[in-house]
């Protein structure tokens, strides 16, 4: 199966500093990947670059085998949705109207919503359990509710690739579980999902594949078990990570031990 999104030798600079230092990473259709790493490793920079919001100093990103830079803005927005860590939409906009912005790539900013657009918005609100918030202004929501509304906007976009930067940060346990069920449902429809996740236990429980970013480079890439128990993970996080089998041994809890 061919990669739907791929970074090759990606270098991204901020000022005079290399934030990404030659990243190679590919996403397959329907794949779920957790992007993990220590603070300031470059995770948010990577997802923003993959979304086409940052230009690389070197290397290249390919969307469906075609250089990302060659895609028109509208075509790119139809294929790739980014759900950022913080929603910067105005506080006064209603949730339903915010979610409807995800339909702009399909119809243009000035065109009225079609029946298909309204159906996509309603479906995204139901998926994220925010239908009851539809007419509430964003400024009246809790941080978790606002984060779910941002996810709904990304789902309404109906992308082929969904990029999420810390999607579970403000969510309580029930909504975290629901979030990852939604992401699994999206993957079943063939959407590639890459999510930055700080909670390593949660990342390992959800993701079939994990990529460890450390100091601007992919230091490990594989199953959660292989990545978390690697020397690269111990070096990146400064702790020894050990998996403890539970139940029938198919699942693991992860134990973190500070290095002496």
Question: Overview of this structure, please?
Answer:
With 260 residues, this protein is α/β, with parallel strands linked by helices. The chain is 33% helix and 29% strand. The chain is built from 10 helices and 12 strands. It has helices at residues 43-50, 73-79, 95-100, 104-107, 115-127, 143-156, 173-188, 200-206, 224-228, 231-237; strands at residues 5-14, 17-27, 32-36, 58-63, 66-67, 80-83, 161-165, 192-196, 209-214, 217-222, 239-246, 251-258. The strands form 3 sheets. A 6-stranded mixed sheet has the order 6-7-8-3-9-10, sandwiched between helices. It has a 4-stranded antiparallel sheet with strand order 2-1-4-5, covered by helices on one side. A hairpin with a 2-residue loop joins strand 4 and strand 5 (66-67). Helix 5 runs antiparallel to helix 6 (143-156). The longest helix is centred in the last third of the chain and has 16 residues, at 173-188.
At the first level of CATH, what is the class?
A: Alpha Beta
Which CATH architecture is right? 3-Layer(aba) Sandwich
* Fourth-tier CATH superfamily name: P-loop containing nucleotide triphosphate hydrolases
Count of domains: 1
Shape: globular
The overall pLDDT average reads 93
What is the terminal separation in angstroms?
Answer: 44 Å
Give keywords:
single chain, 260 residues, alpha/beta, Rossmann fold, 6-stranded mixed β-sheet, 4-stranded antiparallel β-sheet
Secondary-structure map:
Layout: E1 5-14, E2 17-27, E3 32-36, H1 43-50, E4 58-63, E5 66-67, H2 73-79, E6 80-83, H3 95-100, H4 104-107, H5 115-127, H6 143-156, E7 161-165, H7 173-188, E8 192-196, H8 200-206, E9 209-214, E10 217-222, H9 224-228, H10 231-237, E11 239-246, E12 251-258
Parallel strand pairs: 3-8, 3-9, 6-7, 7-8
Antiparallel strand pairs: 1-2, 1-4, 4-5, 9-10, 11-12
């Amino acid at each position: 199966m061919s990669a739907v999104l791929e970074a090759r030798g990606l270098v991204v600079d901020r000022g005079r500093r290399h934030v990404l230092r030659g990243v190679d990473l590919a996403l397959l259709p329907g794949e779920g990947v957790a992007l993990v790493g220590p603070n300031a490793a470059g995770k948010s920079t990577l997802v923003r670059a993959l979304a086409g919001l940052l230009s690389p100093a070197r290397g290249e990103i390919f969307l469906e085998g075609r250089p990302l830079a060659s895609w028109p803005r509208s075509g790119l927005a139809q294929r790739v949705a980014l759900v950022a860590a913080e929603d910067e939409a105005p506080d006064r906009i209603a949730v339903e109207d915010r979610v409807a912005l995800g339909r702009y790539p399909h119809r243009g900013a000035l065109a009225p919503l079609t029946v298909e657009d309204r159906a996509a918005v309603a479906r995204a609100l139901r998926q994220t359990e925010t239908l009851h918030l539809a007419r509430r202004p964003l400024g009246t929501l809790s941080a978790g509710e606002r984060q779910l509304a941002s996810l709904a906007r990304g789902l309404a976009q109906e992308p082929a690739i969904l990029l999420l930067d810390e999607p579970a940060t403000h969510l309580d346990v029930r909504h975290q579980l629901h979030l990852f069920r939604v992401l699994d449902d999206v993957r079943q429809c063939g959407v590639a999902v890459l999510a930055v996740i700080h909670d390593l236990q949660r990342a390992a429980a959800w993701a079939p594949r994990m990529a460890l970013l450390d100091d601007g480079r992919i230091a490990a890439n594989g199953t959660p078990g292989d990545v978390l128990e690697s020397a690269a993970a111990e070096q990146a996080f400064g702790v020894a990570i050990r998996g403890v089998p539970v139940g029938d041994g198919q699942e693991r809890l992860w134990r973190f031990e500070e290095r002496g």
